[in-house]
Amino acid sequence: YRLADIPITINRFAYDYRNNISKSDFISYMITRINMRYADKEISGETKKKHMQAAEKLKKYQPQIHFTDFDENWCQKFDNWLRRNIKPQKKDNRPSDNTRWSIHKNVRTYMNQAKRDQIRFTYPYAWFPINNVHGKWKAIFEKDVKCLYNYYLDKKCPENYRKILRAFLFSCMTGLRISDLKRITRDNVIDDILVFVEYKKRKSNHLLKVPLNAMAKKLFSDAVEHSLRDQIFNNFAEQYANRELKEIAALLEINENLHWHVGRHTFISLYYAKTKDLLATQQFAGHESIRQT
Fold this sequence. Notes:
There is one protein chain. 54% of the residues lie in helices and 4% in strands. It is built from twelve helices and three strands. Strand 1 and strand 2 (193-197) form a beta hairpin. Helix 4 packs antiparallel against helix 5.
């Protein structure tokens, strides 16, 4: 603490000692902080997994990274390594860009935490702005939604596809993100209205209320019937489901890159197309600004 010029108290030392927080190795510090945040229920299991994956990438880049290793060029060197070592999923696009920026964001999160913990080091992201790359997915047409729903109702539809379609189509009808979809329980529907607090904005505790149409009510009823758990749509892994959605799209000749977030885009696009009510669309989407909608 003295060498790092960090103020020390008995309580602070005891806290850091119990949690084994490293003041020298950033990777050890990051992993410890991830586990602490998860134990305190500050982050979900899915978020913990993504943050741990970023820490694993750091380990592959450099097995041990001391806080004193950071300088104004560190981020650029790490970014160059990520460019060489993250392979695109397909030859005709570059989905690795989003993965790369996501890793940077997660690493930066724990550098910011280290600053709050008063660990002295050169903050490399001051010289390296993080960009957002728009996803390759977009909303699907109403005819595609009907095609998927008819396949869901078809007795020939395999149960594994039906389970994924049940959740995806419910997202198309409600605009739910996967983080919210996996938390929906029987109690979230009251008088045919879906009532929930967005997980992404859980600290504000703002309720969203989305009316359910006939398709959404049927999907919700089926989910309740086929689920033995409280969270009725939480019975699949996101990566697995994305692969299944792409298989379904190919089978039904839907020429779009189906992905979980397509459901949310589809709801927003179709609702506005039918109503031309931008304010209501903003409200049901849970957007903070009309510009975002």
